[in-house]
Amino acid sequence: MPASDEEHGRTICKVLMLCCLLVASCTILGVSFSVITPTEVGLYYNPNTKRLNRNKVWGSGRHLVCPGCDFKRYPSSYIPFVYSHQEGTVMGCWTSDKQELSIELFVQVKILPDKAADIYDKYQYNYFDPWSQKIQMALKQTTKDYNTESMFEERSVVTAAIKEEIESYLEDEGCEVASVHVGQITIPTQFEDAITTKVVTQQNAATVLMQRNVTVIEAETAIIDSQADADAAVIVGKANADASVIRERANAEALRKVQQAEAEGLKEIMDELDFSVSQTLQFKFNRAIKMLGVETTVGVGYDDQYLSVKDRA
Hints:
3 domains, single chain
């Protein structure tokens, strides 16, 4: 082969190589790569036109993009919402019987890939706080329908109700509730202290009331004793008075009967001896004086007139 032909071939090869390098350089300069991790989904976004491609949701991988373009990425894994004592985010709520409780709650939410564009329009990337507020509202709305005893003894029922309420709150948010777990349920310390103070106060009040009742009982017993003594004294006094009245009545009745018997006896003497009234009275008085042991006689005149009283010689 002549030398001129060999030189011509080399020149052509160099030109082709330069063309390839030029094409490759233009290609590299005109496009770039963007990586989406396995835990993400992406929406293609062109900042030059400020347009979001809603027709396709990109999965994980290394993708060619135009210069300056990139993906709006959203997590495809679970998004945790943690409310615990350790995180300092434990939630307070009320039960149906007005008991305040502190509840630890763990919620996992997953973004629906076909709703990523709607989330971008509504929140861009600031979706976490609004969703967290909705979860807290759902919890407080649920616990008010259960009493304190149910919160501790029917945890599975309460947890299912909380999950259902959270799902209703996040229904139009472009996500699904994967799981809900209720952790530790506690009564606030200040409430326990208040209860303790209240119990002690009630016990002290009960003690004072018991002491007062004892004093009242003792006073009532003393009153009853005094009343009984007074009643007994009245009864005794009345009995004595009644006895005196009975004795006086008996004496009066006896005296009346004696006098009646004496009158009847004198009447019989008058009838039997044919005494006059004056003679009968003289007999009566002489007999009375004789019973006294005095040697005295009574003289009675006519018309029952008293004449003289003289000692016997």
